[in-house]
Amino acid sequence: MGPPLQDILVVELAGLAPGLLLADYGASVLRIDRPHSFAHTSKSIQPTADILTRRKSSVAVDLKSPDGRALLEDILVKADVLLDPFRPGVLESLQLSPGRLLEKNPRLVIARLTGFRHDGRYASMAGHDINYLAVSGVLSQLGRAEGAPYAPANILADFAGGGLMCALGVLLALYVRTASGKGQIVQNNMVDGVSYLGSMMRLAKKSNMWNQPRGQNLLDGGCPWYDVYQCKDGAYMAVGALEPQFFRRLIQGLDLCETKAFAQREDRASWPAMKAQFKHRFLEKPRREWEKIFDGTDACCTPVLDLQELEEDGYDQELPVHLQMSAGLAVENCHAWTGQGLSPGTGGLDTLYHWFGWKMGRDLKVKKGGLIKTDASKF
Questions:
Q1: Does residue 81 carry a pLDDT above 80?
Q2: Strand, helix or coil at 323?
Q3: Shortest CA distance to 156 belongs to which of 187, 193, 123, 189?
Q4: Phi and psi (nearest 5°) for 365?
Q5: Residues noted as catalytic
Q6: Alpha helices for the chain (secondary structure H)
Q7: What's the CA angle centered on 379, arms 69 and 344, to 5 degrees?
Q8: What is the pLDDT of residue 42?
Q9: What is the pTM (predicted TM-score) of this model?
Q10: CA distance from start to end of the chain
């Protein structure tokens, strides 16, 4: 049995979208790029800034021209999924409204991924991960007590609350289509996506688990046995010994007094003193020695590995979900650590031939750097 999405045809409008995830599980993903004077010619083009291009192909299309829009509409008549990462109203301004597209292909799943909500105060504003994280309320809970809120790169809103949630929406819509035979519009925004991911944090604010200011709670750096500690060599160890039995093994590995440690554990006022003690103890040995002490134990104490050492050690990057009967496509070593990039027009003609049997010259031609239909085309 092949990968689960092997028969799904996905059209991705250039921009942040979950196309990589769908492609890794077998979908054929065609990215629509802006026109380029060298596109679909023998001349080389610099790849775009997008590095999440594994298994994707590209065609250059001018969506501002009637001929370019006509080509995209013909592609979408036979496609399964359209990934739209633009701000609200952009598709409509291009005369490519979801209603129009669904009239031509009722089975089409149109996933519209925005940063802010489609309506409300921020709907028309530009933004990035940190902004979506900020207005969701989640950013206010991240960071150390003594500093400003701290955004963990662009992982939470762009990828977890955005791309991953959008992929979930696409899969749900495809599942519904198996029974109804109809596609639908999937609305996603990163604010609601990351807010949903923060449900436990938000609900825990009304409990002893997370009712203190930022950086002073059980899981946000306030607790001594759930934190990161620097070692003698400047490297770090991560501690997550929440349960008593794991905490006991941690204290044993640190060679500290169990009786005193368990007494401090129950007294939140003693946490700063315990954290200072932990900091001092971890600084006594380099990380490798702490690894020898804690490897194979239930102390929930592990090294903080950086990406360079993982790559040098030959760490295998694998897909996030493994299906026993219909596995996804393996991540090859050449794609695991280096983004290959994708130039406008690369591989797209082969994809269109594979999807529909279209050929350059007979069905397609280039006009001002973008693909259009030929006058004699029958599709």
A1: yes
A2: coil
A3: 193
A4: -150, 170
A5: 158
A6: 19-24, 66-78, 90-93, 98-104, 129-136, 165-180, 190-197, 199-204, 244-254, 258-265, 271-282, 287-294, 307-312, 333-336, 348-356
A7: 45
A8: 86
A9: 0.93
A10: 32
